[in-house]
Every structure is written in C-alpha cells, then in structure tokens.
C-alpha cells in the first residue's frame, strides 16, 4: 500500500527518537538490501521490502500482518516470507522493540505478535556463547609476624671429674677464695727461738 509523503513525514515526527534514528540511518537501508540479496529478491521486491520496514516502524503496518505482507508483495511462499520476516526482526525491529510494542499497544511480545503460530515466542537465532568465567583465586593472608624467643645456650655437661672440679673452683666467690697464708696459731712442733743479746757472738759461744 502506498502512502502520501505528507503522512509519512507526520508519522516520523510523531515517532520516538530511536525509531526516527533507525528510519533515517543508512545502515537500515543496507540491512534491508542485504536480506533481499540473500534471498534472491529482485529490485522491485527490494523496494517493496523497504516499504514494509518503513510502514512498520512508522505505525502503518501492524506487526501481525508482516509475514502475509512479505509473502504477497514479494511473491514468495509463506515459509520463505516467515524466514525473511525473522531476519527483519533480528536486524531491525528488535532494536526498537519497546517503542513498537508501545506504538501498537501489543499485549504480547513483538516476536510472538509477528509469528503467532510459533508457541515458543523466542527467535530461532543461535544463542551467543557465554563468556568464560575468570578463575577464582583465593588470597591467603600472610602469617602474622612472630617475636623470636631468645634461646639460652645449653650448658654442656662435664665429660669427666676433672672438668667438674675446675668448674667448682672457678665459680667460688672471690671473697671466699681469699685464704690466709699465715696460720693464726703458732705451730706446736716448732720450738721458740731464744732472743739474742746485743754484742754476743754465736761462734764464740759455741767454742766454750
């Protein structure tokens, strides 16, 4: 169905920012052309596909009618039309799904609205592999510093009685080791010496 340019401009003005950006982006046109070439759609079919995308984004084509519209305008079977519509959803419509759901007041997801026969309600695109989780490392806190205990050098036991005797001698207090060299009492075995008179000659006395 053809719409007047004035109507299209008015619908574009009433659209949300993300829809306006998607309609005016050259990447949108490139994506539609890529899908058309992938499925062998001719030039007229490519132009019809552009109209389908534009009308859907501007609120002029209900999402539940996209598959039948693709099949009629491109002249393809229902299965091929559904495949093309799925790629349109993946590349374009899913980018503004919240805005389209609000614009058409959908009671279910956009995908389920476009493909009511699909009970899963989930696109059939391969899921992206999950990113590997980084290994979990457990950091052990360093041990608390310990205060070194001073060690008392071990005393080696004496190897013989001689060493033990020397040990006792050198450990006696200095005051106790002082012993008087002269006895306090006269020796009883030594007779007393008689005093000598002045001027006496011991040699002369022995002659008498």
From TrEMBL:
Residues 182-191 have a biased composition (Low complexity). Residues 139-158, 171-208 are annotated as: Disordered. Residues 139-151 have a biased composition (Pro residues). It comes from the Bacteria. This is Uncharacterized protein. The lineage of its organism: Bacteria, Candidatus Yonathiibacteriota.
């Amino acid at each position: 169905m053809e719409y007047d340019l004035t109507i299209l401009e008015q619908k574009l003005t009433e659209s949300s920012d993300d829809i306006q950006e998607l309609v005016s982006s050259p990447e949108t046109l490139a994506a539609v052309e890529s899908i058309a070439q992938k499925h062998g759609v001719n030039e007229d079919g490519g132009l019809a596909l552009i109209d389908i995308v534009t009308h859907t984004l501007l609120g002029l084509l209900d999402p539940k009618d996209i598959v039948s519209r693709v099949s009629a305008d491109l002249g393809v079977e229902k299965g091929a039309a559904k495949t093309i519509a799925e790629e349109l959803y993946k590349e374009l419509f899913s980018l503004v799904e919240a805005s389209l759901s609000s614009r058409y007041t959908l009671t279910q997801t956009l995908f389920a609205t476009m493909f009511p026969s699909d009970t899963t309600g989930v696109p059939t695109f391969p899921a992206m592999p999950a990113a590997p989780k980084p290994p979990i490392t457990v950091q052990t806190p360093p041990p608390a510093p310990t205060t070194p205990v001073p060690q008392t050098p071990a005393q080696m036991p004496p190897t013989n009685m001689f060493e033990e005797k020397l040990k006792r001698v050198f450990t006696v207090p200095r005051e106790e080791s002082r012993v008087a060299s002269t006895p306090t009492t006269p020796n009883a075995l030594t007779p007393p010496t008689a005093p000598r008179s002045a001027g006496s000659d011991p040699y002369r006395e022995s002659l008498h």
